[in-house]
């Protein structure tokens, strides 16, 4: 029985370690959605799940991460102890009937 309890404890600790996503705050809901731009796709759910794809010369980045919080317009994302900051130079705004924002130097448009 002792080994059986250890398995449940280990499973619980693993689940707690991976459940780090922060929900998107009410004042940042404009960030939620599927965004695309030149060689970049970014998806953010209101629950704080992020999917990021970016093509670079000779490489492809394809990540699923959890939102770890906002700092001004920028937001942090990561998995467990690894973190990256998405630098938002132009926050979400409506222009000519489309939602746009600029992240890491790439202008993105939100899907309708």
From TrEMBL:
Signal sequence coordinates: 1-21
Keywords, in A-Z order: Signal
Name of the protein in its database record: DUF2147 domain-containing protein
């Amino acid at each position: 029985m002792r080994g059986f309890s250890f398995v449940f404890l280990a499973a619980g600790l693993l689940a707690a370690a991976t459940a780090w996503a922060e929900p998107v705050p009410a004042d940042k809901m404009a960030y939620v959605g599927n965004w695309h731009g030149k060689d970049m796709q970014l998806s953010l759910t209101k629950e704080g799940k992020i999917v990021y794809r970016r093509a670079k010369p000779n490489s492809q980045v394809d990540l699923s991460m959890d939102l770890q919080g906002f700092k001004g317009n920028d937001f942090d994302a990561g998995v467990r102890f690894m973190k990256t900051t998405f630098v938002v130079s132009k926050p979400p705004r409506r222009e000519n009937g489309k939602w746009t924002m600029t992240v890491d130097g790439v202008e993105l448009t939100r899907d309708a």
